[in-house]
Structures are given as C-alpha cells and as structure tokens.
Amino acid sequence: MTKKRISILLLIVLALSLIVGCDKKETSNEVKKDYICIATGTTKGTYYPLGRALTKIYNDNIKDLRALDQSTQGSVENMVLMGKGKVEIGFVQSDIAYYAFTGTEIFKDKDKVENIRGMTMLYPEIVQIIANKDANISKVEDLKGKTVAIGAIDSGIEANARQILGIHDIKYQDLKDAQYLPLEEAIEKLKNKEIDAAFITAGIPTSAILEIEETSNFVFISISKDKIQNLNKKYPFYKEVHIPAGTYKGQDKDILTAGIMAMLVVSEDLDEDLVYDLTKSIFEYRDTIIDSHDRGNDIKLERAISGMPIELHKGAKRYFDEKGID
C-alpha cells in the first residue's frame, strides 16, 4: 500500500472517530465530564462560527475537557438532539427552547425536551424578510400571491414566518407557493430568482446574505410598529428591533423588524462544576467569540438571564449569583 493511500485511510479513520465521538452517548446514560458536543447550526448561519469559538475557548481553557462542535439545521434539530442525549450544549432561539420544554407549538406532536436547562442568553436573532427587487414587494402584505421561502419544515424560521404572516392575516394558501427551504437553499433560489422572497432568522450580518450582495439585487421588507406590538402580545418572545443602516451593501436606512433572543441550553445532567466553568469561560474569553462574529459584542453579562424562558442549570445559576446577576 502506498504512503498516499495510507494517509487517506488515516484521514478517513480520524473523521469517522470524530463522528462516532459525538454519538457516543447513544448507548450510555452516563454524561462524561471530559467530553461535550455542541450543536450549532448551518455553516452559513450565525450559530456555526459562534459554536466554533466556544469549542476553542473550552478546549484551550478548561482542563481535561474535550469539546466538539456539530453543524446542524439549527434550533429545532438541536432540541431534538438534546432530548435524545446526543449533544450536551445547544444553540437555540428562546421561543423554540420554550416550545420544546413545554411540548407546545411546533413541538406539540413531538416528545417534550425536559432534560434541558438554561445556560445564558446570547444576542437578538433578527427576522429578515428579503425580496428580489423586481418582485414588487415593499411590505409584508405584498407577499400574497408570491413564491416565498418560509424555512425548513418545523424549523424556527418556519415558526417565525407563520406567526408573522398570521399577524398580517396571511395564510400559506394566500401565497403563490410557500416553499419549505433551509437557509442555504433559500438564498440560492433567491439569487437565481426562482423565488420572490425569503424569511431568514439569524444574527446580523448573516453570512449567507453577505455572500449574495455582489450578485443579487434584493430589498429588505420592514414590519410595521403596530404589527410588531400585536405580535408581541400574542407571542411575548418577539421584540422590536432594527437592522442598522449599512449592515448590508446598499442598505442606506434602518429596517424595522422583529427579533427573538438566541440562547444556549445545556443538559440538566451535566456536572454543576463543569457548567459553572463553561458559563464562566464564555464571559472571561468573550473576545474570542467577538473575533468569530460581530454578534459576540451583544453577549453581555448584565443581560445574560433576562428573558430566560426555562430554568437555569445550577452551575450557570451559581456563576450568575456570584456576579450579582438576577
């Protein structure tokens, strides 16, 4: 066997060992203190770079800990993985964490995910409604009769799209075609003008949108203040937010829209001391997170538990208590 073939085989074995590593607890109820897997999101979203930053922080600064990050489809898949004990930490929208824990909304026909506990709130995830400029869409109501990407089936984006359309008295059947597409596919179809508009919920700037700035001519659709207020009354997780002017190329004014907080959840079975160290490391080495994505600037100790939708893990609570955060 040539050296080249041996090298290729070694790389394959290494890759397989990493995949198996994240799935080790499928056959064991024991949560090992020296091993954690972090469920992130798609490679074009915000969770992924932040998850990679967390992995680096934990591996560099917590003794005897091995951390791995896993790319996923985002919030809903992360909660399913948490419920099955396949990962120890998950990025998730705050509304999806609540739905998963209580078995409501998009989790009403799924198993409750009762083994999760809050770790920290992170940053606002912005509902971005983008449309091809030549599709004649200037407000949400104009989406009627259009082909619109509404997120993958049972995803956090799909829940946001359905709820926001509902506040505007628009049902999926009022659209020409409601397409269930993950973020990357929605962006690609938008770029190729195969769809008229897309809902995207992510931290800003969203890398997938940045990638099409040079090749696509699109506009952002605002949500009116009164509709956001109605949305908040029905779904308290939503807040009024702005996409600041200059966030994206050619965006010369602020865009008013709705946002939901991103957060981290952990397995309730994780050791209290370990979760204390995991939580502490986020804030002590925040610069590493900031270097990975601008949204790291929004991760602040003083609002780490504001709006927390589920019970805090004891380890995280101990850290915040020490810091006088309540």
How many strands in all?
10
Question: Main beta sheet, described?
Answer: 10 strands, mixed
Number of domains: 2
Helix/strand/pairing category: alpha/beta
Task: Quote the beta fraction.
Answer: 15-25%
Overall average pLDDT: 89
CATH class of the largest domain: Alpha Beta
**Kindly, what is the distance between the CA atoms of the first and last residues, rounded to a whole number of angstroms?**
62 Å
As residue ranges, the low-confidence spans are 1-21, 24-33
What gyration radius follows from the Cα positions, in whole Å? 20 Å
SSE arrangement, N to C: HEHEHEHEEHEHEHEHEEHHH
Shape descriptor: globular
Percentage of residues assigned to helices: 25-40%
CATH fold category name of the largest domain: D-Maltodextrin-Binding Protein, domain 2
Give the CATH superfamily of the largest domain: Periplasmic binding protein-like II
Number of helices: 11
Keywords:
single chain, 326 residues, alpha/beta, D-Maltodextrin-Binding Protein, domain 2, 2 domains, ten-stranded mixed β-sheet, disordered N terminus, TAXI family TRAP transporter solute-binding subunit
